[in-house]
Design brief:
With 140 residues, chain A is mainly α. Chain A has a single domain, classed as Sufe protein. Chain: A (Alpha-Beta Complex). Chain A has helices at residues 3-15, 20-32, 75-88, 93-98, 102-106, 115-139; strands at residues 55-62, 65-72. The chains are: A mainly alpha (140), B alpha/beta (409).
């Protein structure tokens, strides 16, 4: 599936919930199923700055696609990362670089996060794109 | 369950317009009072009155509005002086808040310190009572020593006494810990410091909303307060300083208001307190701070303390019924602050769920990272109660926390 198709799917899923408690429950479930980062990558270098809870992200090329794994010490944060990874993992770096992130606004995620978490979300997206840029350079 | 007290909380709540609002479709339960307290309509009215009727710059104007604004601003200073029982009104310096007050003193002490001098800080300070002193130490070569704390969140005074010597020039400590709620034995701390000739600054930001402080009885050299913690507006506070200290300290900022005479050859400074009040101050804020002090005194600080202690006892008892919940800061001597965690759950997650239920609490390190390091935790959930809160609201918090726990585990 393309990044856009996955984003549309997520927007659809989120529109089915009646309130934000249900959305949180869903994010908590997603958090629990997050593809966990290998322990050896949970280093300070891999911590995303700007997140108040700790977030580690690791990126690896598999063929021509970039695969992300991640972890956090907070479960809702893990849920947010899980959404981002579902969108951006297993995609070509160039597609990740070019992807827009309007779906975040469409599902109302940012406005329903505390300001510190919303900042963290922005940092996470930025970090995933930075990885894509780095790996795209390598592919070139 | 009933809100037994000598004052009627239902009547008091009517003074706070914000308490009627809903958050995420639920009635607001505001338990982030240690971060900022809500504002009663008496204070809001004072702000509206200022801008509607006598907004003018103070101290220098010849016209009526300026005179009215000056009178009200100086009346506010007198109210604050009386409230904290300062001996003289010019010992009350208006600042932008506790952080500004502390920086003012820390900056001034550069003139008095040299390499080899020592300062003492407590282990449970807000960053605003740590960082300015670290900067002072960097400038002067003085050394910063720390009074350790116990598992209960109390300062270990025996260790404090060992740190004191004739090298000690200044001791600073909060009256009440913002993260734990501990009321520190500041009278003992002050007396012991004075015995070795050291000055003492007490950060009263978290004490002033809950308990009475008498700066003369305490014999404290500096005491700092932020208006917004005690029903006043943000961006204003005071530094109380003993006259002899304020006279000794050099000015903090240069500008208008703080001068007696300016020539390009030499400037002489204004008398206290204006020496420390450079520039146009937060006039409206100062006046509204005075209104906040009036408001709290009309209720009575003793009554506020007694009622908040009831809330603290009730909330402590109810929260501890939740399995796996641990309270940080278990001193016998506390104000109405409860910092807690639930085993295996990140405080941010609990805070996020509670927000969706309309409950405002604080999560994180509360600008007191050394305390979090002491307990080896990333942060806590902090519920802090004010006299306008109720036991019913505490029940809502307990139910919400149980629900969050069930979702998150």
């Amino acid at each position: 599936m393309s990044i856009r198709e996955i984003q549309d799917e997520i927007v659809d899923e989120f529109s089915m919930f009646e309130d934000w408690m249900q959305r949180y429950e869903y994010m908590i479930e997603l958090g629990k199923s997050l593809p966990l980062i290998d322990g050896k990558y949970k280093t300070d270098d891999n911590i995303i700055k700007g997140c108040q809870s700790k977030v580690w992200v690791h990126a690896e090329l598999e063929g021509d696609k970039l695969v992300f794994t991640a972890d956090s010490d907070a479960i809702i944060t893990k849920g947010i990362i899980a959404i981002l990874i579902r969108v951006f993992s297993n995609q070509k770096p160039q597609d990740i670089i070019e992807a827009n992130t309007e779906f975040i606004d469409e599902i109302g995620l940012k406005e329903h996060l505390s300001p510190t978490r919303a900042n963290g979300l922005v940092s996470m997206v930025k970090q995933l794109k930075m990885y894509a840029i780095a790996y795209q350079t390598q592919l070139n | 369950m009933s809100n037994t007290s000598s004052f009627d909380v239902a009547v008091i709540r009517k003074d706070f317009p914000i308490l009627d609002r809903e958050v995420n479709g639920k009635p607001l339960v505001y338990f982030d009072n240690a971060a900022t307290a809500q504002t009663p309509k008496q204070v809001i009215d004072a702000i509206v009155d200022y801008y509607s009727n006598y907004n003018a710059n103070i101290h220098r104007g010849v016209h009526t509005l300026s005179q009215e604004a000056t009178d009200k601003y100086e009346q506010a200073r007198l109210k604050i002086q009386k409230h904290f029982n300062a001996g003289k009104s010019h010992e009350i310096v208006f600042t932008s808040g506790t952080t500004h007050s502390i920086n003012l003193v820390a900056s001034g002490f550069s003139a008095f310190l040299k390499k080899g001098d020592e300062l003492i800080v407590s282990a449970m300070e807000h960053h605003s009572n740590i960082v300015p002193w670290q900067m002072l130490c960097e400038r002067t070569g003085a050394k910063l020593n720390v009074i350790p704390m116990s598992e209960e969140g109390e300062l270990i005074l025996d260790e404090y006494h060992k740190l004191l010597s004739d090298k000690t020039k200044l001791v600073f400590c909060n009256h009440v810990s913002n993260a734990l709620g501990t009321v520190n034995p500041i009278k003992k701390i002050i007396d012991a410091a004075h015995n070795v000739g050291a000055a003492v600054l007490i950060d009263g930001a978290q004490a002033a909303p809950h308990i009475q402080a008498d700066v003369q009885e305490l014999d404290v050299d500096f005491y700092t307060v932020s208006a917004h913690k005690m029903c006043g507006p943000t961006g204003v506070g005071i530094l109380y300083g003993k006259e002899e200290w304020l006279n000794k300290l050099p000015p903090y900022q240069g500008g208008g208001e703080m001068i007696a005479e300016v020539t390009f050859e030499k400037t002489t400074y204004a008398d206290l307190p204006h020496k420390f009040e450079a520039g146009t101050p937060n006039i409206c804020g100062g006046i509204a701070f005075g209104a906040a002090v009036d408001y709290m005194n009309a209720i009575g600080i003793d009554k506020i303390t007694a009622y908040e202690n009831e809330l603290l006892a009730y909330a402590t008892e109810q929260l501890l019924t939740i399995e796996g919940l641990r309270i940080y800061g278990t001193s016998e001597n506390k104000t109405s602050v409860i910092s807690f965690n639930i085993e295996g759950i990140h405080p941010y997650d609990i805070g996020s769920i509670l927000d969706k239920l309309g409950i405002a609490i604080r999560t994180g390190h509360h600008c007191a990272q050394p305390i979090m390091d002491f307990y080896k935790i990333p942060g806590t959930v902090r519920a802090s109660f004010s006299f306008y809160n109720t036991k019913e609201e505490i029940d809502t918090l307990v139910e919400g926390t149980k629900r969050a726990k069930a979702m998150l585990q």
